[in-house]
Amino acid sequence: RHSIPKKWHGQMKARGVKTYEQDEEWLTKKQIRQRLLTGIREPMAGLSKWQQHFHHEQPFWLTKFRLIRQITKEIRLQIFQYKILHYVIPTRSWLYQRGMVGTPNCRVCEGYHDIPHLLWYCSAVQHLWQKIIQLYSQIEESAPPTSLECILFGQAQRTQAQKRWNQMLLFTKWQIYKMYLLQKNTTFTGWKVAFRLWLKLHQKAAQLSGKTEVFQNLWGDWLLI
Q1: Using CA atoms, how far apart are residues 156 and 66, in angstroms rounded to an integer?
Q2: 151 near 133, Cβ under 8 Å?
Q3: CA separation for the pair 224, 169 (Å, rounded)
Q4: Tens of pLDDT along 178-217?
Q5: Cα 85–91–92 angle (5° rounding)?
Q6: CA distance linking residue 204 with residue 224, whole number of Å
Q7: Which pLDDT score is estimated for 52?
Q8: Which long-range contacts (CB under 8 A, 24 or more apart) does 90-93 make?
Q9: Rg of the Cα atoms in the chain
Q10: Per-residue pLDDT tens over the stretch 27-39
Q11: Cross-strand partners of 165
Q12: Which pTM does this prediction carry?
């Protein structure tokens, strides 16, 4: 066991954060801190806004929160996906409501700039997604699911292909968001360069941790893109 700072106790009690998983495996101090920072045990913060697009009961949203840690171990990507679910991405409509920009509309296509628009509906983003879907279909020899719900929240990971698509979705959304903050559009060429680098980094991490075979089984066909 490890010592937990006293100042964390009140937050842990309020948020229902425990020092162990359901299988009685103890969490590290870093894992507990991450749960407090991301509000992992308070998954319904953005529910009212997402219900304008989707009509699901609480169990659906709970599974989407749990899915994040299954998709990736990268903290920055986990936090980003938590922000999507909590509906706290600073889109132009979000900024407009706080008086920080003069219009809630997209700079590219003038559509209402909320999270679905930023990550899927924008014409510039749609062009990128079409190229990625085409590449995926060529390599996997099957088309990926492309509903708005899947793009935003991912899908159940029952197969290797579903795991790959979930990771690609999250990586692509992160790239789109980074370019948005830089006031640039994500090009397919730029995406491919970033994705190749991301794969190489994960390949190196797999080698260092003795999980090369696991990585090859998951991404082997993608290393030559």
Answers
A1: 11
A2: no
A3: 19
A4: 999 999 999 999 999 999 999 999 999 999 999 999 999 9
A5: 155
A6: 16
A7: 83
A8: 91/115, 91/117, 91/118
A9: 19
A10: 676 766 666 565 5
A11: none
A12: 0.80
Record the tokens describing residue 31, joined without a space. Answer: 């894992």
Residue 168, CA distances (Å) to 69, 92, 172, 213, 219 in order: 15, 25, 6, 20, 11
Q: Which residue has the tokens 């088309």?
A: 143
Query: Helix or strand or coil: residue 139?
Result: helix
Q: What is the DSSP letter of 104?
A: S
Angle between helix 160-181 and helix 123-140 axes, rounded to 10 deg: 150
Inter-residue contact 109 to 124 (CB < 8 Å):
yes
Contact 48, 88 (CB under 8 A): no
CA distances from 24 to 2, 19, 71, 160 (A): 14, 9, 22, 28
State mean pLDDT over 51-58: 86
Task: Output phi, psi for 143, to 5 deg.
Answer: -80, 140
Tell me the C-alpha to C-alpha distance, in Å, between residue 209 and each of 2, 160, 213: 25, 20, 11
Q: Could you tell me the CA-to-CA distances from 67 to 72, 148, 210 in Å, in that order?
A: 9, 17, 25
User: What's the rounded Cα separation, in Å, for the pair 142 and 40?
Assistant: 34
CA 1, chain centre distance (Å):
31
Burial class (CB in 10 A: 0-12, 13-18, 19+), 119: buried
